[in-house]
Design a protein that fits this description.
Order of helices and strands: HHHHHHHHHHHHHHHHHH
Radius of gyration: 21 Å
Number of helices: 18
CATH class of the largest domain: Mainly Alpha
Number of strands: 0
Distance between the termini: 21 Å
Subcellular location: Endomembrane system
CATH superfamily of the largest domain: MFS general substrate transporter like domains
Oligomer: single chain
Largest sheet: none
Main location: membrane
Protein name: Major facilitator superfamily (MFS) profile domain-containing protein
Structural class: mainly alpha
Strand content: under 5%
Shape: globular
Membrane topology: Multi-pass membrane protein
Organism: Aspergillus terreus (strain NIH 2624 / FGSC A1156)
Number of domains: 2
């Protein structure tokens, strides 16, 4: 039994072969508070990535400054390796303490604007905290009733943080004429609230005696990655998220340059195209989270991906600035549900004991897309021009479309224990 999902609501445990009733976010006051805590944690994570003014402050090239964006990947990778052990031995209470503490430590270091190598190391701690929280809260929310809607709100709050963060940071720099590091005073306050809130509401989420037994923790990640059924699902989700996150960050990072140089837009209007893209992702997560379960996760993402590719073709082939702004916002809208849907698929197709390991690994693997693929776009753009952005994005979208089609058939209901194991043996 894993500790990454809501505990059964019945007084006595259900037999292994019986379908278990799933908890709802508003089933109890405790669940409401825990859900709000996870939402706040994702808001903090979404606001985490502002790194404004580093080039001028440290007088470094863009290539050297880019290490700040690579370093969280090290923390994510470490979290992927340790996720299951932390859950088994410390429970969600351990995650509720460690993840916000890592955020708090990183932001305190950033406020001190230390030598640049120290700053890079501090973002490793932020990445480790993000990796733990990403796996824990995705798995916990993903095992609730109405998981698509709930994960849509969870990741929507991440999008809200990503939208607000650059607005606040830019205002502090341009309007208040403060250094880039003043933004992290706000982040310290947010992380302190995250630590107090999460630790308080998840204090009772201790590891169970079953989860701390040697058999429960031995080789879970190995089984998740290398058994026939679990490995297929986990690796497909991992490569899917690698491509998805790469698409998201590449568009978000390069669309302003594309709109200025290829569509000849004004600086401010081109900058708003990036805001429209991130708002599209945020609204897509909120709105399409209610549509996805009606269509089924597999069919829904196939449809969304085809629509996203269609709007990408409009952005690429229609030489009109305003059409491009609308098209990129719609790309974001249909990309929004991809990550939540991948989490739901993992929780439906994998045994519950593997949820944290699988989601943690896939999220860390996807983090590689954020670090590597935007720089691949940059390297190609330097040689061929920034107009290669959309052909690159469309090709990558086609790749993750084919990956998604390779998932096993989705079960209509989730099962626990013996039924799940039988499903894995039969796959």
């Amino acid at each position: 039994m894993a500790v990454d999902s809501p505990s059964p609501s019945l007084d006595s445990p259900a037999p292994a072969h019986v379908f278990t009733e799933m908890e709802r976010w508003n089933q109890s006051r405790s669940n409401v508070l825990k859900t709000l805590a996870t939402f706040w944690s994702f808001l903090v994570m979404g606001a985490n990535d502002a790194a404004y003014g580093l080039e001028s402050y440290y007088r470094l090239s863009y290539t050297v400054v880019s290490l700040v964006f690579f370093s969280p990947l090290g923390g994510y990778t470490l979290a992927a390796l340790l996720n299951n052990k932390i859950h088994v031995h410390l429970g969600r209470r351990g995650v509720a303490f460690i993840a916000p503490s890592c955020h708090l430590l990183a932001y305190i270091v950033n406020c001190l604007h230390p030598p640049y190598p120290v700053l890079v190391v501090s973002f490793i701690f932020a990445g480790f905290g993000n990796g733990l929280a990403d796996a824990a809260w995705n798995a916990w929310i993903g095992n609730m009733a109405d998981a698509n809607q709930m994960l849509g709100f969870l990741h929507g709050l991440y999008g809200v943080g990503a939208v607000l963060s650059p607005i606040i940071a830019t205002s502090l720099i341009t309007r208040a004429h403060l250094g880039w590091y003043y933004f992290y005073y706000i982040m310290i306050a947010c992380a302190a609230v995250e630590l107090a809130f999460c630790l308080t509401v998840f204090w009772d989420a201790k590891p169970t005696p079953e989860s701390t037994s040697p058999d429960s923790s031995r080789g879970v990640l190995r089984r998740t990655l290398f058994t026939k059924h679990s490995g297929r699902v986990t690796w497909i989700c991992a490569f899917f998220l690698l491509g998805y996150v790469g698409i998201e960050v590449a568009i978000g990072g390069w669309i302003v340059t594309f709109m200025m140089r290829v569509r000849h837009g004004a600086d401010f209007a081109s900058g708003m195209s990036a805001t429209g893209f991130w708002l599209g992702i945020t609204f897509g997560r909120f709105v399409l989270g209610f549509v996805t379960p009606r269509l089924g996760e597999k069919l829904a993402i196939i449809i969304y991906c085809l629509l996203e590719i269609g709007f990408g073709l409009i952005l690429w082939l229609v030489p009109n600035f305003y059409a491009g702004v609308v098209a990129v916002a719609m790309q974001g809208f249909f990309l929004g549900p991809f990550f939540p849907a991948a989490v739901v698929v993992a929780t439906k197709l994998l045994p519950r004991a593997q949820h944290v390991s699988a989601i943690g690994f896939a999220a860390a693997f996807g983090g590689g897309g954020a670090a590597v693929l935007p720089f691949a776009v940059g390297a190609i753009a330097q040689a061929r021009g920034v107009q290669v952005l959309q052909p690159f994005i469309i090709g990558l979208s086609g790749g993750i479309f084919l990956l998604w089609c390779g998932l096993p058939r989705m079960p209509k209901l989730r099962v626990d224990g013996e039924e799940e194991e039988m499903g894995e043996r039969g796959a």
